[in-house]
Amino acid sequence: METALITGGSSGMGLEYARQLARKGFSPVLVSNRADELETAGAALAAETGVPVRTLFCDLARHGAAEEVVAWCDAEGIAPAVLVNNAGMFFMHQLKPDDLPKAHAMMTLHMETVTDLCILFGARMAEAGRGWILNVSSMTARIPAPGIALYSATKAYLKSFGKSISHELRPAGVLVTTVCPAAVDTGLYPLGPGLRKWGRRLGFIQTPEWLVRRALRALFRGRRIISPGAMNLLVPPLVAALPDRLIDRLGKRWIP
Predict the structure, then answer these.
(1) Are strands 174-179 and 131-136 parallel, antiparallel or unpaired?
(2) Which residue range forms the structural domain that includes residue 223?
(3) Residues 99-139 pLDDT 10s
(4) Residues 32, 34: Cα–Cα separation, whole Å
(5) What's the CA gap between 176 and 167, in Å, rounded?
(6) What is the pTM of this model?
(7) Per the structure, how many domains does the chain have?
(8) Which residue, 82, 155, 195, 238, has fewest beta-carbon neighbours within 10 Å?
(9) Of residues 4, 11, 10, the one with CA closest to residue 208
(10) How many helices, marked H, and strands, marked E, lie in the chain?
């Protein structure tokens, strides 16, 4: 049975990626920095799908984390056929000097670790002549976003990097897809239950099941970038039409 390695796999979209890949016949490896949640999720997923599930506790927001993941896979005899770079972090407020530690952690997690994993596992997939890599970017990669300036910038990097490396790896049989979702109903975003409910009803917030199903379909069909959902059609052109001064005012008024 081939293996799928999913970062941020203990909850939210990561766990849903693992669930749907298990249903497709892959044995998931869940990587997360939440030890208790990780073990519980792995056991529950194995019981639910009947597929072997392995877990790795690792803080991917540290320099050198990708090399640790690869070394662990080598020690366990694991050669992932699918890599899902899903792990992420989020905060919303104007950047201040005190934010530098978590800013560095976000840049390491979203850019350095993803880049390293793509290069290290991508080379092995290319040598084998087949493989699939899915990188999770965001709709915010396309818009100026006061309050989440660093988040949107790192996601823009992922979109650009994913598109470029897809051209490098495809001739060797490795397919790379970058998904740019709008709002997804996970614990990543600090939204109350009421707002989540209305967002789902109006179609502004999508479920992890909906998003993951479309992302995996795109991955195995070889699409390079997808931006699913109505919000991806509406919001970026709307924001692009706003005057910069209005965006300044909105950010100052609504963003702490």
Answers:
(1) parallel
(2) 3-254
(3) 999 999 999 999 999 999 999 999 999 999 999 999 999 99
(4) 5
(5) 8
(6) 0.90
(7) 1
(8) 238
(9) 11
(10) 10, 7
